[in-house]
């Protein structure tokens, strides 16, 4: 046995080692799973939430307690409404102040869907306003702040959660799908405008994923219909989305830029 093999192997550096990742809407659902996954890749996480402070705090504790270095802070929580420009600015300010570096990664997972699934003819104006305010204006404000403040020179990543419903075009999803379609168009132009920064911008567009948003307002029959419509015969789960987001967040994804990646088991 040579001398080197008798020593424990030094831990290899993780792909996002100590990079700061802001994940909006990560108190629950897909955003939460993304936060956990990016932390497992070595990132320091800013957990953003709107109202569920307790759930966000529990997640931060979970990530911090699973850190191999118990003295180093790996996750913090920041309440911010993504549709408020001052809040979005604060999100980035806090991330920089606490972790002492500009963020490398912005994942925008915050989103809303009206659980009544109204037809366009029956959509109240307030539902239109709220949907576009959170899903579209929120994505715009996150893109704008990220485009100005993410790390330059390599590794900067903007990842936006949109929806396969932009392709699925089901009745009852008109306003929601339109709010996400605008984001998909915006990201394609943003990627070009970021020329020279080393920052890439992409959308992940999931199909049905078993979260509160998905189950809210759906009958058992509608859920079964979605399962039957999927070639893989099941609902998506958050674990189906996070590896793709993880890949996009790393340096390995650099050549994927300005794209919309549908992740839906073949549903659309
Ligand atoms: N689940 C699906 O089937 C599906 C399919 C396609 C696309 N998507 C998209 O994937 C993303 C995540 O969906 P999900 O299923 O995880 O939803 P979810 O379970 O309903 O979670 C929504 C998250 O967004 C946060 N949020 C809502 N409004 C916000 C605001 N104004 N500012 C900041 N945060 C806000 C919530 O925070 P609080 O906990 O504080 O309320 C929560 O963390 C959304 O953009 C959604 O449109 C979902």
UniProtKB/TrEMBL annotation:
It comes from Manihot esculenta. Belongs to the short-chain dehydrogenases/reductases (SDR) family. It comes from the Eukaryota. Transmembrane segments: none annotated. This is Uncharacterized protein. Gene3D superfamilies: NAD(P)-binding Rossmann-like Domain. GO terms for molecular function: oxidoreductase activity, acting on CH-OH group of donors. It holds the Pfam family adh_short_C2. Keywords: Oxidoreductase. The keyword Cell division does not apply. The keyword Glycoprotein does not apply.
């Amino acid at each position: 046995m040579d001398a080197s093999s008798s020593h424990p192997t030094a831990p290899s550096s993780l792909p996002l080692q100590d990079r700061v990742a802001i994940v909006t809407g990560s108190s629950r659902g897909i955003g939460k799973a993304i936060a956990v996954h990016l932390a497992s890749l070595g990132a320091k996480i800013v957990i953003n939430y709107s109202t569920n402070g307790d759930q966000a705090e529990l997640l931060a504790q979970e990530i911090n307690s699973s850190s191999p270095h118990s003295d180093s802070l790996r996750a913090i929580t920041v309440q911010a409404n993504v549709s408020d420009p001052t809040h979005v600015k604060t999100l980035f300010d806090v991330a920089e102040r606490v972790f002492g570096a500009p963020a490398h990664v912005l994942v925008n997972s915050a989103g809303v869907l009206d659980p009544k699934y109204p037809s366009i003819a029956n959509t109240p104006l307030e539902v239109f306003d709220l949907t576009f305010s959170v899903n579209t204006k929120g994505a715009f404000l996150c893109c704008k702040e990220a485009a100005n403040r993410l790390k330059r020179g390599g590794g900067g990543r903007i990842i936006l959660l949109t929806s396969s419903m932009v392709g699925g075009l089901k009745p009852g999803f008109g306003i929601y799908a339109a709010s996400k379609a605008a984001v998909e168009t915006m990201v394609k132009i943003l990627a070009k405008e970021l020329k020279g920064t080393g920052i890439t911008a992409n959308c992940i567009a999931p199909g049905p994923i078993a979260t509160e948003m998905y189950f809210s307002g759906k009958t058992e029959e509608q859920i079964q219909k979605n399962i039957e419509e999927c070639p893989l015969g099941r609902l998506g789960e958050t674990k189906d989305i996070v590896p793709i987001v993880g890949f996009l967040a790393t340096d390995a994804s650099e050549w994927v830029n300005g794209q919309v990646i549908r992740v839906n088991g073949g549903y659309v």
